[in-house]
Design brief:
Blueprint lengths: L14 H21 L10 H4 L20 H10 L63 H17 L22 E11 L2 E13 L3 E10 L3 E12 L2 E11 L1 E8 L4 E4 L6 E2 L5 E2 L2 H12 L9 E7 L4 E8 L3 E5 L2 E10 L8 E7 L5 E8 L5 E10 L4
Length: 389
């Protein structure tokens, strides 16, 4: 019986097999060394792989030692080049633009308020013309009055007393017959800056015996309206205004204060002396009508009528020349009229023409005002009726 724990004899490996095994191992090592990644080489320096660091420095401008002189600053500002503006490309589509014409204001109201346009420096001193008076005067001022005028002006300036406006002396009222209450509607045609425009005007005249009120309103499309109003007492010499107002957007007024001997203005312009018989720019037309009706033979052709006329900011002397009668063809119809005209006294004064109709109680049926540059307003009667109550 064989011993199971006895060693078993094995055959020795062959030499060729060992040689082949060695070659295989060497080839495997060589392959591993050739294909190994480079990371198995020397470890790279971490600092070499970092991103470069950028340093930021702030440079402060040098502080200004002294302020530049005004001349140097102006020269530097002048040397600054203007920015080049690139042209804007026009749209391919053309747009229809509306042509807007300049619309004139409301000079039509000036037929009851001629505004004297004076260039700077053209208004003569008050001392060059005699002061206005309520007394009649058929001749020029005496040399004594002319010499005394500068002294009076100096005294007025020193004491603050209002100085009378320059102009002729007032015409004495002998008889007066004011027209009855009425409402007059007018057609207005005007020319300004080469444009012709049309408007409507309404004049309301209320004669209450002891009191009166007159209001003129002019209105035009796209322009608006303007009104002027006068109110006061009816006395032996005619109309005695107490307040005159001119309203277009805002109102300015003149206040007659006979107890204080002055006329004051809401426009804060200097006061003017109150003179008996003076009128405003609305009442003057009815005062003239009353004087013509009261004494129709007292004002032949060539006669003049003068009176102080108060506006919204000052007063002036107005003189009207009586001209020959005319037959007018108006929207109202044909009327025989008596014409008065206010001739310009200075280069830029306006010419005012008024036509009164005796058959209508000497109511003003036409008026025309012409500026020195040729612009005009012509107002012609359309209808006559009773005034609103």
């Amino acid at each position: 019986m064989e011993n199971p724990f006895a060693p078993v004899a094995r055959a020795a490996p062959r030499r060729g097999t060992l040689t082949l095994l060695v070659l295989l191992v060497l080839g495997a090592h060589l392959l591993v060394l050739r294909t190994a990644p480079k990371r198995f080489g020397p470890t790279p320096d971490p600092a070499a792989q970092r991103a470069p660091v950028f340093a930021t420095r702030s440079i402060k401008p040098p502080s200004a030692t002294k302020a530049a002189a005004p001349a140097v600053a102006a020269a530097a500002a002048a040397s600054v080049e203007k920015p080049v503006v690139k042209p804007v490309k026009k749209s391919v589509f053309k747009q229809n633009k509306a042509v807007v014409q300049e619309v004139p204001t409301l000079p039509a109201i000036d037929f009851v308020a001629p505004q004297t346009i004076e260039p700077p420096g053209s208004i003569p001193p008050v001392a060059e013309e005699p002061a206005l008076s309520a007394e009649p005067n058929s001749g020029p001022a005496s040399s004594t009055a002319a010499l005394a005028a500068p002294a009076a002006d100096a005294a007025s300036a020193a004491t603050g007393t209002p100085v009378p406006p320059p102009g002729p002396r007032q015409t004495l009222v002998t008889d007066i017959k004011l027209p009855e209450s009425a409402r007059l509607d007018y057609k207005v045609t005007g020319g300004a800056k080469g444009l012709t425009y049309h408007a409507n005007a309404e004049l309301n005249w209320n004669n209450a015996g002891g009191d009166y009120e007159a209001r003129m309103t002019v209105s035009a499309l796209f322009i608006g309206s303007r009104s002027m109003a006068s109110r006061g007492k009816i006395v032996g010499e005619g109309l005695a205004p107490s307040r005159f107002a001119d309203k277009y957007k805002s109102e300015v007024a003149a206040h007659f204060e006979p107890d204080k001997g002055q006329v004051s203005f809401s426009a804060n312009t200097p006061a003017t002396p109150w003179i008996k018989g003076m009128q405003d720019r609305v009442s003057v037309f009815f005062q003239l009508a009353g004087m013509l009706a009261g004494n129709p033979n007292g004002f032949p052709v060539g006669a003049t009528i003068s009176m102080v006329t108060v506006g919204p900011r000052d007063a002036d002397g107005w003189t009207f020349l009586v001209e020959a009668g005319e037959k007018l063809s108006l929207p109202f119809g044909e009327l025989d009229t008596l014409k008065l005209s206010r001739q310009p006294r200075k280069e830029f004064d306006q010419k005012v023409e008024i036509w009164y109709a005796p058959s209508l109680g000497y109511l003003p049926v036409r008026s025309k005002i012409t500026q020195s540059n040729g612009d005009f307003v012509d107002q012609q009667l359309k209808t006559v009726g009773k005034p609103p109550q």
